[in-house]
Amino acid sequence: MTTATETKTASRTDAYGFPVVTCYRCGGTGHYSFNMQDGSRCFGCQGQGVCWKRGKVATAARAFQEARRKARNPIVGNLVKGDMVAANTIERRFNGKGMVWWTVESVVLDTTHVTGWQKNFTTGENEPTAWKCTVTLVREDEEPMVVQAQTNYIITGKSAVDPTPYLVAAGVKKEN
Questions:
Q1: Are 90 and 64 contained in the same domain?
Q2: Are residues 98 and 153 both part of a single domain?
Q3: How far is 104 from 93, CA to CA, in rounded Å?
Q4: How far is the CA of 136 from the CAs of 82, 110, 143, 160, 163, in angstroms?
Q5: Sign (positive/negative) of CA torsion 23, 29, 32, 38?
C-alpha cells in the first residue's frame, strides 16, 4: 500500500516530459467545489487530477505552454518564409476540408501605409504601430494566394515548439 507521500513523489510526467504530481487541491479527483458556471472542475489541475511540480518545473512548463500559444496565434508582422498558417476562414467553412494550411512564401511590408497609431507619452507624439503588408501563401496543389493584412493582425498558425530547452530550464533530465 502506498502512502500519500509516496504518491506525491512518484515519477510521472506529462506528454512533454514535465514532472507532474497528484493535484494538491482535489487529491487527484479533478473535482473540487461546485459552482454554477464551471460545475465541480478543480482549478488547481483544470480537472486533470495532476499538476506540475511547484517551483522551477511549473515556471518552465507555463513558459512552454505560452510559447505553444504564441505559435498557434502568430502576428502577421512576425511571419517568415516557411511558416504554416490557415489563411482563409471562408474557404475552410465552405469546402468541407477542415483547416486549410498554407506555407508563407513572402511577407512584404508597406511602410508608406500606416494602419495603427499609438501616443508616446514621453514625447507626446503619435507613433505608428501597424502597417499594411502583403503575404504570399503557397500550396502544392493550388495557385499562390496573396493576402493583404495589417502587421498586428493575429492569425492561426501551425508550429511545433520543442520542449527540450524548457525541460533543461526546469532541471529535468530527459530519458531516451
A1: no
A2: yes
A3: 21
A4: 11, 14, 10, 22, 30
A5: positive
pTM of the model: 0.65
1 has pLDDT over 60: no
| DSSP type of residue 113 | E
Residues 103 and 31 both lie in one domain: no
Distance CA 157, CA 67 (A): 12
At 55, is the secondary structure helix, strand, or coil?
coil
Residue 157 grid coordinates: 498558425
Position 54 in a domain = yes
Claim to verify: residue 85 and residue 29 sit in the same structural domain: no
Rounded CA-CA distance 45/50 in Å is 6
Task: Let me know whether 12 and 25 are in one domain.
Answer: yes
- Residue 170 covered by a domain: no
- C-beta of residue 162 within 8 angstroms of C-beta of residue 67: no
Instruction: Note whether 21 and 45 are within 8 A (CB).
Output: no
Q: Give per-residue pLDDT as tens, 151-176.
A: 888 888 887 888 999 999 888 876 65
- In the chain, the DSSP E strands lie at 12-13, 19-22, 31-35, 39-41, 50-52, 84-86, 101-119, 126-139, 142-150, 156-158
**Same domain, residue pair 89 and 32:** no
